[in-house]
Design goal:
Helix content is 32%, strand content 23%. The chain has helices at residues 53-60, 83-92, 110-120, 125-138, 155-167, 185-202, 213-219, 237-242, 247-254, 261-266; strands at 10-22, 25-37, 42-46, 68-73, 76-77, 93-96, 173-177, 205-210, 222-227, 230-236, 307-310, 313-315. A hairpin with a 2-residue loop joins strand 11 (307-310) and strand 12 (313-315). It has 320 residues and is an alpha/beta fold. The longest helix is centred in the middle third of the chain and has 18 residues, at 185-202.
Length: 320
């Protein structure tokens, strides 16, 4: 998107999140991640399970306290907000969680789940019911669902309730943490289309966390590829899919299923050898080196810097 002259809505600067797993051992879930998100766009974080993408999202909304680095929202460091600013931040930034079965309180009705944030932000009780009814209609449910509990719904319906909850306080920025990974394929398409429509109608900005690259291509303006806590490549969606540069990105894209049988025969899957290395006290070198067929001696000795190879296209690889 050609909006780089504007101030970013969200700035993530050298974000790190380490978990202590021993006296001298740190699990480096996120290690030096830097990126911007501009108003109205969808930026996707992709990578294998355990690469740190969900942890990054949770640090950005302060569910996790970062070990170091900054998250700046609308020009303000979220770690330095006053109490009043924190309440405003909670209203402006919401999250849709990955697991619709675990993220909804089984003891609360749909009306209570969706209306809880409205009450916290001062909406009169008599207006809450009307607002909840409107929100449920927005996500494809109806007022008859308000008195039911979460166990009475399918996975797709539960995720719709989760989306209604995120929308309840009219946020500007929503972190979508793998919102469709637990759903059937047919339901996935419905939820993705709904998210796109909501973005157009409400002017929303998304951070979309996923591992399904075919979905990411459909919904994203820009894509960030993560591997073992670090960023390895980032570019606008069309550029990344047509011109991947990092060996890991190429391998991920080669794994996307091809619907056309002729194209499927012609395409070659790029296998990734070996297992993902441990994120506990990793070596200060390319994290992908042990699994990369192109790795040189330098890859095992130095951490590659994320550098720009074309406008908006950055790669962390000694070979580019």
């Amino acid at each position: 998107m050609e909006n780089k002259e504007k101030q970013p809505l969200v700035q993530v600067k050298n974000l790190c999140k380490y978990f202590k797993v021993g006296r001298h051992a740190d699990l480096k879930a996120v290690d030096g991640v830097t990126f911007d998100i501009y108003k109205g766009e969808t930026v996707s974080l992709v990578g294998e399970s355990g690469c740190g993408k969900s942890t990054t999202g949770r640090c950005m909304i302060r569910l996790y306290e970062p070990t170091s680095g900054q998250v700046i929202y609308n020009g303000k460091d979220i770690a330095k907000l006053t109490k009043a600013e924190q309440k405003e931040f909670c209203q402006q930034v919401q999250m849709i969680f990955q697991n619709p079965y675990a993220s909804l309180n089984p003891r609360m009705t749909v009306k209570e789940i969706v209306g809880e944030a409205l009450k916290q932000h001062g909406m009169p009780a008599k207006e809450v019911d009307q607002k909840v009814e409107q929100l449920l209609e927005t996500v494809g449910l109806n007022k008859d669902h308000m008195s039911r509990f979460s166990h009475e719904f399918s996975g797709g319906q539960r995720q719709r309730i989760g989306i209604a909850r995120a929308l309840s306080v009219d946020p500007e920025f929503i972190i979508c943490d793998e919102p469709i990974s637990a759903l059937d394929v047919s339901i996935q398409a419905q939820v993705i289309n709904m998210l796109k429509e909501l973005q157009e109608k409400r002017g929303l900005t998304y951070l979309f966390i996923a591992h399904d690259l075919s979905v990411v291509k459909y919904i994203s303006d820009r894509v960030i590829v993560m591997y073992l806590g670090t960023m390895v490549e980032t570019a606008e969606t069309e550029e990344l899919y047509s011109n991947p540069q990092h060996p890991y990105t190429k391998a991920l894209l080669s794994a996307i299923p091809e619907a056309d049988p002729d194209k499927a025969k012609a395409s070659k899957r790029i296998p990734i050898k070996g297992e993902i290395p441990s994120p506990i006290n990793p070596k200060n070198c390319c994290r992908f080196a042990e699994r990369c067929e192109y790795a040189t001696e330098k890859c095992f000795q130095e951490m590659p810097e994320l550098h720009e190879i074309a406008p908006g296209h950055k790669v962390a690889c000694h070979l580019t």
